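Open question from group meeting: does this chain pack into something compact, or does most of it stay loose? Before anyone orders reagents, we agreed to write out a predicted structure and look at it together. Recording both the input and the output here so the notebook holds the full record.
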Amino acid sequence: METKEEKVEQGVTRIQPGDGRSLRVLGELMTHKITSERTGGAYSLFEVMSEPGNGLPPHVQHREDEAFYVLEGEYEFLDDDGHTIRIGAGSLIYVPKGNLHAHKNVGDKPSRMLVIQTPGGLHERFFEELGEPATDETKPPAPKDQPYVEKLVTIAAKYGIEIPPPPGWQADGKRRD
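Structure tokens returned:
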């Protein structure tokens, strides 16, 4: 006999506003909306809320494609050629695996977007390992100290995410002379 939970897993799923597990990752609020477990590994979907000036550093995902659909606010995206693109609500950016990219909220209030990764699963595990449960609406800044950056680079590598060193720095985190 099927339980109610099994029926939900196999059928249509409805996610209400505010539903989903929320984590603070690099200062952003990331809420799991659809996990890879629900999609048979096909994709994962997150809602991301970024404070003004906040975003993710340049990185390359070697195992999954990613798309960003802006719901509110304005973001600036860095592409593989080093160009920046500003987009607002209703705009979509698609990033195939293997391409350098980054995003940052360039507005003066919080911005929100939906982020999908395909196949799903890797980002979910990356966010779980790196992030902390979001228990309230506090807005902590993104950590930038060296031990956290080293942790970020190490954990990212486990999930096929490369975070190149900033200009003037080596891959081991030391400044070039």
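Observations to bring back to the group:
The longest strand covers residues 65-72.
Residues 146-158 form the longest helix (13 residues).
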